[in-house]
Design brief:
The complex is a heterodimer of chains A (501) and B (356). The relative contact order of chain A is 0.10. In chain A, α13 packs antiparallel against α18. The two termini of chain A are 47 Å apart. Helix content of chain A is 44%, strand content 12%. Classes of the chains: A alpha/beta (501), B mainly alpha (356). Chain B: It comes from Fictibacillus phosphorivorans.
Chain lengths: 501, 356
């Protein structure tokens, strides 16, 4: 009961959500934990409370810088003020300032890449940690949909930290990926808490289109009819902008797009407007969402088919966090997956790029791989991939590597790349199959994660005859009309009220 | 008419064929080179420095093409343009409609405007929410320095907060009432506070039916006016002053020049600085020119005699010459550095009149 009291005191909640209590309790007993919890069930609460009750410091590894920022905001808002994120967005001076006061922080968010920096790592290691949290832990597995090579080194970090309690969290890991997580994080005696990925309050619809252009019409109609707020996911920035323009032309004004190419200040405004319900709809690429904690999202539309089932689950999981009935609608056109298929070929280095990296003139110029990597024209993922493997084999900054050594390494790399590509292609085929399957959509998703049984839900999915009109309705317009600047200034500074008082 | 055309036309007019269009592009997009910095002052277009931040060179040349097609400018040699009689008339009319442009202060504030804005908008958001008793708002600014600044000056007690709100409200209304309505409207829409998150430039452009470029320029013109008044009339605007003073007090130097300035103040000689920082003499010279331009206390007398300063000034006044070459021809015994120092020091007064 002690945990419930703490929950009440810290958050003013009277009940834990699925899995939270058991995981915290295991951590407090001194066990490492691998937790798989459905999207939107408050994973952060687990390590907030655990660190608080352990009266210690937590290092949290998180894959996305944008996600980290949102998490820091949310921690501060929840009253955990001593929270900070260390990432590549900070200036040198800002980093220095944070590192100088590292002792004063309770939660430090880091990317797996930044802790490779020897200076930062040494400072982090100079203080004591009670909890090592690996968020989105599926990134550790090359079978996971978002493989990040530097996640593979986290076990080393854990060891150097003196093996604090380790908590690995994910919402989307197949059994194979879960085994990988345990293995790579060196969590031999971990308690494992796996919960169903099923979100019974989200109905799942898939609609088929023969003409791509029809999707625009359909999306417009859905936005007009569905009760908001909602999100539309697209594959490209362009499509997100295009949708918003179309909607605005049709007089729908409380919509905005959000993607990685925007000015950061403006993007943050859009995000906060949506959280405040000033906007009813966001059209975005998958850059939006991970850290978004908005409870009342009623619909998620996928304008394109996402490139993996895991990604799809993550994205529809933003709906209905308040447990109210919500809907996910995927608009499928056979050409949807062309972009992701194409992308697979470009994500990791191709044969020409590898050949360039290992080419011989390198030795004449005394270039190291590190210098050459910059010139190879790799994608961000490709760069990270190469950097990781070269570094791991001690080749990154070495010059004068023998031809034999290079040839052997090159061969191994090519194999790794082929494996990863095959995995990605398989994952695309899986979602393609799921989209076109005539069986229950929910069942298909659950099977993918190794779940074979689930309770029948009302409004299950488009193949179980659920009716989309159930989700129609008008949304509550928040009164944020702006009339005249003088009035607005008065309101902002609450001037009239004072005069009356 | 696209606002870019007006701005480009105005700068072409003031430069009057003394620079290639690429030089003008660098001024307008705020390139941080000694050349662009001193040119912008030299030709009296410092307020336009960085006015078209982010404009691509391709877009810029397209705008020039448009001006040529309208016959508002004529090409006098490759990449060099002069404004035609017709262009001058158009410019006169358009500038009257865009009176806010004179409030821009690009050269002075480009390096600090974003930080100043972050501090102001975060301060207003925090204050507004606290006035309504809402402690759980989510900050719209992440800039670490701005957050620290707001934290350090945020009023602690309820009474203090009410007082500050009243003062800031008064300062803001007073200042905004003297500016043009549309720009003020843009600016206030950008502010966030209790129950409302500020609008993006794109949203404001749509709501007010002006181009996004113009929206941004109008916004910046108000912001610059606020920063300017917080310095010049700091007694009238104590709250604004408290928000910005730690940034406006610093001379607006490039980072590298600031290093040099600090080392100079710490008693290092120019020779030592060159060796310690491993920089070339020409770089140090650029820095000195920056100091002459930006720092009023910086004396150029160690580098050139008063008599010679007067000679150069006199020559400038009689010839209205804007290029360095003629100066060098007239004063062969002076170095380019000496001439540049005089012009940078006096630039504000003289160059401003050069377009007349």
């Amino acid at each position: 009961m002690q945990l419930e009291a703490a929950l009440k005191q810290l958050y003013d909640f009277s009940e834990f959500r699925t899995g939270q209590r058991e995981i915290i309790s295991d951590l407090l007993k001194g066990h490492d934990v691998l937790g798989m919890l459905p999207t939107g069930t408050g994973k952060t609460l687990i390590y907030q409370m655990a660190a608080h009750l352990l009266k210690g410091r937590a290092l949290v590894v998180s894959p996305l810088v944008s996600l980290m920022q949102d998490q820091v905001d949310q921690f501060k808002q929840a009253g955990f003020k001593r929270t900070v994120a260390l990432n590549s967005f900070l200036t040198h001076d800002e980093k220095q300032a944070i590192l100088k006061q590292i002792k004063d922080y309770q939660f430090v968010f880091v990317s797996p890449e930044i802790i490779q920096n020897p200076f930062i790592r040494s400072i982090l290691l100079s203080v004591e940690w009670s909890l090592f949290v690996v968020d989105e832990a599926h990134c550790i597995s090359q079978w996971g949909h978002e493989f990040r090579p530097f996640y593979l080194d986290l076990a080393g970090m854990k060891k150097e930290m003196g093996k604090p309690l380790c908590l690995a969290l994910t919402a989307t890991a197949t059994p194979k990926v879960r085994t990988d997580i345990l293995h790579h994080l060196d969590m031999n005696d971990a308690k494992i808490h796996v919960h169903s990925i099923n979100r019974p309050n989200i109905s799942i619809f898939v609609e088929y289109f023969e003409e791509y252009e029809q999707k625009f019409e359909r999306a417009m109609k859905l936005v007009e009819k569905l009760k908001g707020p909602g999100i539309i996911y697209t594959n490209t920035r362009n499509a997100a902008e295009q949708l918003v323009m179309l909607l605005q032309e049709h007089g729908v004004n409380d919509v905005a797009y959000y993607h990685g190419g925007m000015d950061p200040d403006e993007r943050l405004l859009v995000q906060k407007q949506f959280l405040q319900s000033q906007l009813n709809l966001i059209a975005c690429t998958n850059a939006f969402g991970m850290g978004i904690n908005k409870a009342d999202i009623r619909f998620v539309i996928h304008f394109h088919t996402p490139s993996s089932i895991e990604g799809y689950i993550q994205e529809i999981g933003r709906a209905g966090r308040d447990s109210k009935q919500s809907v996910a609608i995927l608009l499928y056109h056979p050409a949807d997956l062309e972009i992701p298929f194409h992308f697979i070929d470009h994500e990791l280095p191709d044969a020409a790029q590898i050949d360039y990296l290992f080419s011989d003139h390198m030795q004449k110029d005394h270039h190291t791989f590190s210098e050459k990597l910059q010139l190879a024209g790799l994608s961000e993922t490709g760069y990270r991939f190469m950097e990781y493997h070269l570094n791991k084999n001690g080749l990154l900054n070495k010059s004068g590597i023998s031809v034999d050594e290079k040839t052997a390494f090159k061969l191994r790399l090519k194999q790794k790349i082929e494996q990863r590509k095959a995995e990605k292609i398989k994952s695309l085929r899986m979602i393609e199959t799921w989209v076109t399957d005539i069986d229950c959509k929910r069942k298909g998703l659950l099977n993918y994660f190794g779940e074979n049984e689930f309770e029948q839900t009302d409004f299950c999915c488009s193949n179980c005859e659920a009716e989309i009109s159930f989700f129609y309705g008008s949304h509550d317009q928040r009164n944020t009309f702006y009339e005249h600047w003088e009035e607005e200034l008065k309101r902002l500074f609450r001037q009239e009220v004072y005069k009356q008082a | 008419m696209d606002i870019c055309h007006v701005v480009i036309l105005d700068v072409l007019h003031k430069v009057n064929g003394s620079r290639r269009s690429s030089g003008i592009y660098y001024i307008l997009t705020g390139k941080k080179t000694s050349q662009s910095l001193s040119d912008s002052q030299w030709f009296g277009v410092e307020h336009y420095y960085a006015a078209l931040k982010g404009l691509t060179y391709a877009d810029f040349t397209e705008k020039i093409e448009n001006l040529l097609n309208e016959k508002w400018v004529t090409s006098i040699e490759d990449q060099v343009y002069k404004v035609s009689r017709q262009g001058e008339q158009v410019l006169l009319i358009e500038k009257k409609k865009l009176s806010f442009l004179k409030n821009l202060n690009g050269l002075k504030y480009t390096s600090i405007e974003s930080l100043c804005w972050h501090v102001l908008t975060l301060y207003v958001q925090a204050l507004s929410n606290s006035l309504y008793g809402n402690l759980e708002y989510s900050p719209i600014v992440r800039d670490h320095r701005a957050v620290q600044k707001v934290k350090s000056i945020f009023p602690r007690s309820k009474t203090e907060r009410k007082e500050k709100a009243e003062s800031l409200y008064r300062e803001m209304s007073q200042l905004l009432l003297n500016l043009d309505r549309l720009s003020v409207d843009v600016f206030v829409r950008k502010l966030s506070g209790y129950n409302r998150i500020g609008s993006t430039f794109e949203q404001i452009a749509r709501e007010t039916d002006i181009s996004q470029r113009e929206t941004i320029l109008r916004f910046r013109s108000v912001l610059h006016a606020i920063i300017y008044n917080s310095v010049v009339k700091h007694q009238e605007f104590p709250v604004f002053h408290s928000l910005f003073c730690s940034f406006t007090d610093l001379p607006a130097l490039t980072k590298s020049a600031l290093r040099t300035y600090e080392m100079l103040n710490n008693g290092k000689t120019l020779q030592q600085i060159m060796e310690l920082r491993n920089i070339k003499a020409s770089t140090i010279e650029d820095h000195l020119v920056e100091f002459a331009r930006e720092i009023s206390e910086f004396s150029i007398h160690p580098f050139i005699d008063e008599e010679e300063i007067q000679e150069v000034k006199k020559f400038y006044n009689s010839t209205k010459e804007n290029r360095l070459r003629p100066f060098k021809d007239a004063f062969p015994h002076l170095s380019y550095l000496q001439i540049r120092l005089v012009l940078a020091k006096e630039g504000g007064n003289y160059a401003a009149g050069s377009s007349a």
